[in-house]
Design brief:
The protein has helices at 10-18, 25-39, 52-56, 88-97, 121-133, 138-160, 163-182, 188-195, 203-208, 210-214, 220-231, 288-294, 299-312, and strands spanning 57-59, 72-79, 100-107, 235-238, 243-246, 271-274, 278-286, 317-324, 359-363. The chain has a four-stranded mixed sheet. The chain has a three-stranded mixed sheet with strand order 1-3-2. The chain is elongated. The protein has 366 residues and is an alpha/beta fold.
Length: 366
C-alpha cells in the first residue's frame, strides 16, 4: 500500500525560526527547502523541482568571535513583499497563507567571517566596528554575496549522494526515473500500463524492486522472496512443472508427406511433454479477503501478472495455486456471490486442512 506523503508541520518551522540553535544546519535547510517547495507548488501536496535554496534561503556571515555553541547562530523570516516578520503572529499568518518569502540563516561554523571563518579575524573586527559605530552594513553584505553561494553549494554537495532527500523534492524528475530505467521501465507508456486499473503497480513499487528486475536470469528463490515481500503473503515457487503441449500441424510427422529421420526429426503423436516452460506459484495460506483478491480478475491477480512480467520476463508460463486457510473455509450461501470452482465449498463440518483447490494459469508469453 502506498504511504501518504508526509507534510512539513508548520510547528516545526516555527520552532526552527524561534530557536534555530536547537537545529542542525543541514536539517534546518532541508526543512525550509521542503516548506518552500510545497509552498511554490501549483497543486496541493505536489512537489516541484527547482533551485529552492537559491530562491528562498539566504546565508549570512556571522560576526561573532566567540566559540559557537550551535551550528546556527540566528534566523530571520521575511514576507513575500520583503517585510521582516518580527512577531510570531505575523509569521504564522504568512505560513498559513503561503506568503513566506524567504529566510535568512546565519551559520556559525561556515563562511568568510567570524571565529570559524576563512578570513583573518581582523576583517571581522573591522566589519563589526563599521556596523556598530557607523551603522554601515555594506561591507558585511558584500561578503555575504560570496558566502551565500558557497554555503548553498556546501549544502548541495552534502545532499547530492543522499538519494532519499532527492526523492522528497524531485522524485519525478531525477530520483524515480533513474530507478525505473534500471528496472527496465524507461517510458511513460510502460509506467502507465503497469499502474493502470485495479491491481496497478505503482512507480515506487517498481523502483523498489529495480535490483530484482535487473537480475537476470531470475532464480526461483529470488522471485519467491520478491513476490512474498510485495504481496505480504507466503509464496512458494515450484520449478519444472510439466504439461502436455500440442504440436503445430506443420511440425507433425506424416507418412508420405514430410521427410523425417528416425531418431532425429521423427515425432510420434500430436503433443509433447515439456518441463522447461512452466512454473507453479503456490500462494498462501491466505485469508478470505486475500484469497478473493488473488482469484482471476482480482486486484492481486492483475498485480501478480504484472510483477511476473517485470521480474521474470515473458519466457515462462505460470500455474497459480491458491491455498485458503482452513479457518476461512465455510459453507456457501446462495446469493452471496460465490463462484463455482473457486470459493464454493459444501461443508458438513469444519475443514481439517487448508484448501488448495483453486488453480489457474497466467500466460505472460505474448
Amino acid at each position: 500500500m502506498q504511504a501518504p506523503n508526509r507534510r512539513i508541520d508548520p510547528g516545526v518551522v516555527d520552532a526552527l525560526l524561534d530557536e534555530p540553535h536547537r537545529f542542525e544546519f543541514f536539517q534546518a535547510v532541508r526543512v525550509l527547502e521542503g516548506l518552500f517547495a510545497r509552498q511554490a507548488s501549483d497543486a496541493p501536496g505536489a512537489w516541484r523541482h527547482g533551485d529552492v535554496v537559491a530562491q528562498h534561503i539566504e546565508f549570512r556571515n556571522t560576526l561573532s568571535l566567540g566559540f559557537p555553541p550551535s551550528e546556527i547562530e540566528g534566523a530571520r523570516s521575511f514576507h513575500d513583499g520583503g517585510a521582516l516578520l518580527d512577531s510570531g503572529d505575523e509569521r504564522d499568518a504568512a505560513l498559513a497563507a503561503g506568503e513566506l518569502g524567504h529566510v535568512e540563516l546565519t551559520p556559525a561554523f561556515f563562511g568568510l567571517l567570524g571565529a570559524q571563518g576563512a578570513l583573518p579575524l581582523h576583517y571581522t573586527e573591522q566589519i563589526v566596528a563599521r556596523e556598530h559605530l557607523k551603522r554601515d552594513h555594506a561591507a558585511r553584505a558584500f561578503f555575504d554575496v560570496f558566502s551565500n553561494r558557497a554555503t548553498a553549494l556546501f549544502y548541495a554537495a552534502w545532499k547530492k549522494y543522499r538519494l532519499p532527500f532527492h526523492y522528497e523534492l524531485d522524485r519525478d524528475e531525477r530520483y524515480l526515473p533513474l530507478l525505473l530505467a534500471i528496472a527496465g521501465v524507461p517510458s511513460d507508456e510502460i509506467r502507465d500500463s503497469l499502474a493502470a486499473g485495479a491491481g496497478g503497480v505503482l512507480d515506487e513499487a517498481v523502483a523498489g524492486y529495480a535490483l530484482a528486475a535487473r537480475h537476470r536470469p531470475m532464480s526461483a528463490a529470488y522471485l519467491q522472496r520478491a513476490l512474498s515481500d510485495y504481496f505480504r503473503v507466503p509464496v512458494k515457487i515450484d520449478q519444472f512443472v510439466g504439461k502436455w503441449y500440442d504440436v503445430p500441424p506443420d511440425q507433425l510427422s506424416v507418412l508420405g508427406e514430410v521427410n523425417v529421420v528416425l531418431g532425429a526429426t521423427a515425432l510420434v503423436g500430436e503433443r509433447v511433454w515439456q518441463r522447461d516452460m512452466r512454473a507453479r506459484i503456490v500462494v498462501g495460506p491466505l485469508s478470505k479477503r486475500d484469497y478473493e483478491a488473488f482469484l482471476p480478475g482480482g486486484a492481486h491477480a492483475v498485480a501478480l501478472e504484472r510483477m511476473l512480467t517485470l521480474l521474470a520476463g515473458v519466457t515462462l508460463e505460470y500455474e497459480v495455486k491458491l491455498v485458503l486457510k482452513r479457518t476461512e473455509v465455510g459453507a456457501s450461501v446462495l446469493g452471496a456471490g460465490s463462484r463455482l470452482g473457486w470459493d464454493v465449498f459444501l461443508c458438513t463440518r469444519d475443514a481439517l486442512d487448508d484448501r488448495s483447490d483453486a488453480r489457474y494459469e497466467l500466460h505472460v508469453i505474448h
